[in-house]
Predict the 3D structure of the following.
Amino acid sequence: MDCVVQYYVASDKSRLTGTNAENIILDDMNGAEVLVDSLANDGVEVIFGVPGVQVMDVLDVIYRRHRIRWITTRHEQSAAYMAMGYARSTGKEGTAMVVPGPGALNTVAAVGTAYAASIPVLIISGQNESHTFDQTRGYLHQTNNQMDIFRPLTKWCNRVTQITEVPEVINQAMHLLRTGRQRPVEIEITSDVWLASGDINLKTPAGDQVQPPDLKLIKGSASLLSSAKKPLIWAGGGIISSNASRELTQMAESLRAPVVTTNEGKGAISEAHPLSLGGTNYGISPALLQADTILIIGSSFQRRRNSWKPLPNQKVIQIDIDENEVGRNVPVDIGINADALPTLKAILGELPEKVKSEWQKAELDSIKSIIKSKSEETAPIQLSIIKTIREEIQDGILVPGINNIGYWCQTAYPVYQPRTYVTSSYYVTLGYAFPTALGAKVGNPDKRVVAICGDGGFLFADAELATAVQEGINVVTLVFTDAALGSCLRIQQKRFGNRIFGTQLHNPDFAQLARAYGAVGITLKDVNELRDALRSALGGNRPAVIQIPLPTLAQPWDMSL
C-alpha cells in the first residue's frame, strides 16, 4: 500500500511537517531525501559508514532530517561488522553505507560473515551516474558488475537508477531482511538519483507474514517426540533469529529433554537451566549418542570435526526456515520447512501432558561433569579467564573473537539470555570481534559489552578505537597476546615438526596504542590481575583496552570426550 501525507517544504527541504509514517507522500523531494525518509519510516535508526562523493547527498539529508544517527567508521569493513553486531544483539536490521568500488568491496568479508551467521544487514552502496554503466572509462571507483561480487554473499541484490524505484526497493529489501532466513541484502543507487526530484509515494513498511507449518508434519513430530524415551534438542541460531527462546525452553520442559546449543545458538536456552547441556564441544556429546530422538531446530547440524551419523535406532526431526538446510547434513525422518517460533508453538499444542522421557537428572549431571572435567584438565588457564569474564560482565554482551580464549568460550562460557553472545559462525572471521562489539554497544548502550581479541585479530580494526572515542562507544576489549597467530602456530607445533614460519608477530604496546587514541589502556602482568582490571574498565565511561599476556595454549579440539 502506498502512503499519503503532504510535506509542504518547497522553500526549505530540511524541515518536515508530516511525521505519520503510515500516510506519506513526498512532494517534490529529491532522491536522497526519499531514501532517508524511506529508511527512517521502515525503522532504521543508525547507519554505519564511510563518506564519499557518491553518498554525500545522503549525508546532507541525514544532517538536516535528524531522523537517523550516522556513525563514521575508519574502514568500510568495520561499518558492515558494526551493522552486524547491532543487528544480532538487538533483533533489528543493521545498515551500512559506502561508496562503490573500493568502499563496497571493503565490506565483503563482513557481508560474508553476516551471511554465514544469518544476520540481517543492509548494505547501501552509492554508484556512479547511470549513463556510465557499460562504459569502461575509469570513472571514479568504477567496478564493472559490482553486484556479481555480492550475489553469492547476500539474499538479494538490486540497483536503483530512478527516483521512483527508491521506495519500492527499500520496501523489498526490508521485507527480505525480516522474513525467511535472515541474511544480508545489498542495494546500489546511482548518484543521479540523489538530485532527481518528483512527487514520490513511500511504501507502508512490509508486514512480517509467517507461513504456518504443515499440520500433518506437526502431528507426526509431536507423536514421535512424545513416544521418545530419550529425546534430545539440538538448538541453533534460528531459535534466536525467530525470538523463540521461551518456546524452546517450554519444549525442553514438556519433553524433559536436554538441550545442546550450537555456537550461534548459545543463549537460546539459559545455560543455568537444568536441562541445558551447554554449547556444542569439539567432540561428540555423550548425550548425542544416548538419545533415541533428536530434534534439530534452526541449525544446519554441520558436524565439522567428526563423522557422526544417526544410529539405526535414532529418529531425527529437523525444523528450519531454510528449505535447503532440511536434510542437507543428516538424513531426517521428519523435515519441517518453517519458522521456529510458530512451529514450536504448534508442536507444544499437540503434546500430551505426560511424556515417556527416561532421562535422569543424575545422568545429565554426569554428562555435564564429563565435559567440565575434560575442559578443566585440558585448559585450566582458559577456564579461569572465562569464569572471570562471565562473572564481571553480568547481563552484558560478549563477542568472542578468533583466538584461543574465544574458541574455549563455545564450551566454557555460559550464556543466560538470547542475543548476548555474537559469533562469526562458520566463517570464523579473524578480526571481526572488536568492530562487531562496537555495533552491539551502539544498539545496547546500557549493557556491558566485551570483545575478546587476540593480538593478530585486534589489529585488523584497531583504528576503530578512534570511532569508539569519538562516538562514545564504551566497549571493553581484551587483547590476549602471545606474539603469534596462535592457532596456526599450534598447528605448526603439532603437525609440522615445530617448524615455525609465518605465524609469529611483532606487536605494539596495545595499552599505549589505546591511550594514543584517547581510550583507556591497561597492561596486565598476568591473568591473575584480570578481574580488577576488567571491573574497573567496565565501571568506567570510556572505551578500554586491556592487554593480557598468554602463552600459546591448547585448543578445544585438542580435547577428546
